[in-house]
Backbone:
């Protein structure tokens, strides 16, 4: 029974093969070729289908692991009110997409900077729609006249207290369509993609950065003081509590929360703020980069947070500054003034500043090569013809260095023990053979927290994560490539500083004061 069933099943196949053998050679060749063609088409279709599935899986993986500085976990999201109540550094993500920066552990060939980095200016293509224009030609003419009036006022003001308020409620938006204006209002230039900002930023830092970058400009006030540089202060629209300062001291300058607009060439202020926070010094004021359509032709310019406590007696009295000569400063370092809260002797050269503050200032200024505080006369390096100290004739004072006055040593009116680093004009184009070591003279201790960051070889990673938050500054420096060049300069100076520490036996101690 089984053999017959097998024979019955195989009978069609045997009959087909016998008939195939009896066919002429030409027909057999044609049949074999046709079968081969059908099989080839089947194989090609299967390969294409598998490749298409692979591409779809790749796209899904890319969407799942979209480029981002921090991974956003929706399940662990906390409401924004938790931050306000507990003071924890939780923030609401400002973007829905995520961008990831690949961090290289070691750069094989660091770039050399011979001059100030200036990004290429790209001409913006302005998209306009005839039906949705928010600015008419009359409005544009008014904007240009007001911008010109600001520049003329800055040039002609001669004394503190002379100021002018301008209502810029509708002038801080670049002319464009209504749709573009709505899109920009929903996207912040401070890019925070996770529930937490980087740990070196406090909640107050994040709020200040968002205000400076995104706040609606209500008024512009210019204040100049004789030989001092003019201050261009803007008051922004904010919904929270503005400040804890007394209203009568703020009404003359800033009635709410304000920022100081600097020149586009002073972009070091933004880099200095991020470096200060990464190192854990926390002595600079929050600073971001922002574009104003009515200033500097829309170029990005630094905006620094306004702090009224730096002017306890008002703008007419100027900064709350420490008056010290270089000789007095060196003697105060030897006496370790206010160390362990010990009051100095009346006949000492001590100022009101805590001893450890000078160590933090020296480290910070050396990395950025800021000489306008401890070495205004450029005595510690070879100045160039374009340096201010040569133009003003200060370099000639280096013959009697002990009587050179220190400048820009600022503290808050209610806190004379701690310094505030302002006017952080650094230089990235100074080579390692021309660094200003005078900034480190007399320093015997350095802060442990900052030096540990420098030794950890994670300075580049942290600076990239920090600077990436400020989209306007990131793009103005040429993106990742331009930022890497700036960090290259800092890393080379870090190597020089660590060698200096070992060679001079400088102690690294905790300075949590």
Residues:
């Amino acid at each position: 029974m089984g053999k017959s069933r097998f024979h019955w099943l195989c009978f069609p196949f045997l009959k087909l093969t016998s008939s195939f053998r009896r066919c002429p050679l030409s027909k057999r060749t044609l049949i074999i070729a046709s079968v081969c063609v059908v099989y080839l088409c089947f194989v090609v279709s299967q390969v294409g289908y598998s490749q298409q599935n692979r591409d779809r899986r790749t796209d899904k993986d890319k969407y799942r692991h979209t480029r981002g500085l921090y991974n956003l976990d929706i399940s662990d999201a906390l409401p924004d009110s938790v931050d306000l109540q507990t003071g924890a550094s939780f923030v609401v993500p400002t973007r829905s997409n995520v961008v990831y920066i690949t961090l290289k552990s070691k750069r094989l060939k660091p770039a050399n900077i011979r001059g100030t980095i200036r990004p290429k200016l790209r001409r913006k293509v302005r998209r306009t729609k005839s039906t949705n224009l928010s600015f008419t030609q009359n409005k544009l003419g008014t904007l240009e006249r007001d911008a010109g009036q600001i520049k003329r006022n800055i040039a002609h003001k001669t004394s503190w207290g002379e100021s002018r308020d301008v209502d810029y409620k509708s002038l801080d938006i670049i002319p464009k369509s209504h749709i573009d204006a709505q899109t920009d209002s929903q996207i912040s230039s401070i890019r925070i993609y996770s529930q937490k900002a980087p740990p070196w930023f406090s909640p107050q830092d994040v709020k200040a950065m968002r205000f400076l970058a995104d706040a609606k400009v209500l008024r512009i006030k210019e204040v100049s003081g004789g030989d001092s540089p003019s201050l261009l202060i803007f008051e922004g629209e904010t919904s929270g509590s503005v400040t804890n300062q007394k209203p009568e001291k703020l009404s003359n300058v800033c009635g709410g929360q304000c920022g100081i607009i600097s020149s586009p060439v002073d972009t070091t202020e933004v880099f200095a703020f991020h470096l200060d926070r990464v190192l854990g010094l926390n002595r600079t004021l929050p600073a971001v980069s922002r574009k104003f359509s009515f200033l500097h032709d829309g170029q990005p310019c630094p905006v620094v947070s306004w702090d009224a406590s730096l002017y306890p007696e008002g703008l007419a009295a100027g900064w709350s500054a420490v008056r010290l000569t270089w000789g007095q400063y060196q003697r105060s370092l030897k006496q370790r003034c206010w160390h362990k809260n010990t009051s100095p002797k009346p006949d000492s050269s001590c100022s009101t500043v805590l001893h450890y503050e000078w160590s933090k200032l020296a480290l910070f200024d050396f990395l950025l090569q800021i000489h306008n505080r401890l070495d205004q006369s450029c005595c510690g390096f070879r100045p160039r013809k374009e340096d201010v100290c040569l133009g003003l004739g200060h370099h000639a004072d280096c013959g009697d260095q002990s009587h050179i006055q220190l400048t820009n040593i600022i503290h808050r009116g209610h806190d004379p023990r701690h310094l505030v680093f302002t006017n952080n004009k650094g230089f990235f184009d100074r080579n390692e053979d021309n660094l200003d070591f005078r900034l480190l003279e007399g320093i015997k201790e350095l802060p442990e927290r900052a030096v540990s960051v420098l030794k950890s070889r994670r300075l580049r990673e942290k600076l990239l994560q920090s600077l990436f938050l400020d989209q306007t500054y990131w793009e103005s420096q040429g993106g990742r490539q331009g930022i890497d060049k700036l960090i290259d300069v800092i890393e080379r100076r870090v190597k020089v500083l660590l060698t200096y520490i070992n060679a001079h036996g400088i102690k690294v101690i905790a300075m949590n004061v």
About this structure: The longest helix spans residues 25-64. The radius of gyration is 33 Å. The mean pLDDT is 76. The chain has two domains: 74-113+135-239+248-316, 320-509.
